[in-house]
Amino acid sequence: MAIFSERRDHPSNVRGNFGIDQLMRDANVFASNNLCEVRDQIANTYCPHDLQLASRGDNLEAWLNHRRLDKIGIGAMGYGTIVDIEGIQDEDMLLLMQPLSGAAEIGTSELTIDSDLETASVVDTGDLRRMRWSGDCIQRVVQISNGVLEHHAMMLLGRPLSKKLRFAQSMQLSPKLANCWHYASLLSMELSGSNQDPERSIVENLQTLFIFKLLESHPSNYLEHMRPQPCKIAPHHVRRTEQYILAHADQSISVEQLVEVSGVSARGLFDGFRRFRGTSPMAYLKSIRLERAREDLMKPQSGETVTEIACRWHFYQLGRFSAEYKNMYGELPSETLRKFN
Predict the structure, then answer these.
(1) Backbone angles phi, psi at 116, to 5 degrees
(2) Quick count: other Cβ atoms within 10 Å of Cβ 96?
(3) What's the whole-number average pLDDT of the chain?
(4) pTM of the model
(5) Which DSSP letter does residue 75 get?
């Protein structure tokens, strides 16, 4: 079981095996001793929940430093006293919590994780049931929407996911083993200690490296397929069809056209995509069009609308397009356009 301490350390006083910049003190969201305010601030950043002090009369000294980036949210936080957290609502995202000091007990629908300097937690909010933080517990917290995770998993796999991505909920940490938290540490330092905005390309790359390292190294129901595999070259008719789709994704394409381009029967084409790409030719076409639409939303022409971009890539049912886009990227098309315009 985790050992809980009554020591209350403010982030400015914390030292240990991590640098002060990893606390992202320049990204402070709040610091408060008001229970309702603390609960509401944390709920707005992560998930709605019930927050209680373990002992009546304890002094709450909570704080949160946090930055929401393009692909992930990252920050550090502490409560300054022992707290119990229950009634956690599902926000369709993965929470990764790494204690930088102290300990936390994380209860999920499957198990209880005694999280400390040697054990992080990796929990989908739909599985998170309760938490207890020690008085001296400070955790680095990374949040990633399931849509963003699935998109990056699809890039590694080269095909859509056939079932929900699920990770092992406990992560053992070792200085000898490279893991995603090394990139989180670098990202925290990049976001700290400067009055100037960090280099966007560096922040973007560190986010991507964090996600890919998580997918390639931490146990999941897709790990075997995420790791580098021996070369498995698809038949020529599959690669020829893929090349045609990439070159003509902005044009009307029918199944009949793809069969003609492939040079094999419809059955042979669909079987080749299923065996070597884990998807169908038309599903592959849709994924490419979604990627192209996202690229245009991130770099729109002056005055360009979501509707115009969606129609350019043959998405004429805007409600369905928005739903599929959000499932893939974790945000609505209008949010992407607003963010980058």
Answers:
(1) -150, -160
(2) 24
(3) 87
(4) 0.65
(5) E
Amino acid at 42: I
CB under 8 Å to 333, separation ≥6 — which residues? 293, 297, 306, 309, 310, 321, 322, 325
Domains of the chain (ranges, CATH numbers): 11-225 (2.60.120.10), 236-340 (1.10.10.60)
The span from the CA of 13 to the CA of 319, in Å, is 50
Strand order in the sheet with 83-86: 50-53, 83-86, 128-133, 104-108, 112-115
User: Could you write out the DSSP letters of every residue in 204-261?
Assistant: HHHHHHHHHHHHHHS-BTTHHHHS-----PPPHHHHHHHHHHHHHTTS---HHHHHHH
Q: Any alpha helices (H) in the chain, and if so which ranges?
A: 35-45, 146-157, 180-190, 200-217, 223-226, 236-248, 255-262, 266-277, 281-298, 306-312, 318-329, 333-340
And the tokens for 313?
């890539």
Among residues 17, 31, 192, the alpha carbon closest in space to that of 101 is found at 17
Contact assessment for residue 91 and residue 47, using Cβ atoms and an 8 Å cutoff? yes
Whether the pLDDT of residue 4 is over 60: the answer is no
pLDDT computed for residue 268 by the predictor: 87
pLDDT at 200 over 90: no
Q: Of the ranges 23-27, 42-46, 150-154, 170-174, which one carries the lowest mean pLDDT score?
A: 23-27
Give the confidence band of 189 by pLDDT, cuts at 50, 70, 90: confident
